[in-house]
Amino acid sequence: MHIDPLEKTWVWTVGAIVAAMLAIIFYTAFSQGVHPPSNVETIDSARLHLTEEFAEDNLGVKTNPDGSVTLTMVATRYGFYPQYVEVPVDTPVKMRVAATDVLHGFHVEGTNLATMVIPGFVSEVNGIFKEPGLHAMFCNEYCGYGHHYMWSRINVVERNTGKS
Ligand code: CUA
Questions:
Q1: Which amino acid residue places its CA nearest to atom 1 of ligand 1?
Q2: Which of 3, 51, 66, 82 is the most buried (most CB within 10 A)?
Q3: pLDDT digit string, tens, across residues 99-125
C-alpha cells in the first residue's frame, strides 16, 4: 500500500501531539492533583433549608481555623444566595454550592472558578483571588426563563475586612 510521505509525516506529527497531551494530563493529574471538579457528595436538595450547612442563616463566608475561608451558597431559580459576599484577597477559598431545584452552574467572572451545580450534589471548587476587586458570578447552565438574571457578586477585599 502506498502512503504519501507527507501523509506519513502528519500521522506521526498528530500521534506525537496526542502523546504529548496525554503525558501532560497524566503528569498534572498525578503530580499536582489537577482534576475536573468531581466532589461526589450527595445532599437532599428538597431539604437544603433543614440542613445545618445550607440553612439560610448559615450561608455566606466563614473563616476557618487555618485562616482559609469557606463560601457556602445556594443556587435556586433565579439567584445565588447570598447575592453579595466579601472574601479576603490572597486567601484559599473553598466554594460549596448546592441547588434547590434544577441544574444550575456558576462561573466567577475573570477566574477559572466554575462548575455545574447539580440537584442532589454539593459542588465544591477551590481557588484563591490574587487581587482585590468585584467579580460577577453568573449561572452558566440554562435553568429557565430567568437564567440570564441569575447572578451574584463576589467582592474581593483586603484581608481582615472580609465579612459576609
Ligand atoms: Cu441558574 Cu441558569
A1: 104
A2: 82
A3: 999 999 999 998 889 999 999 999 999
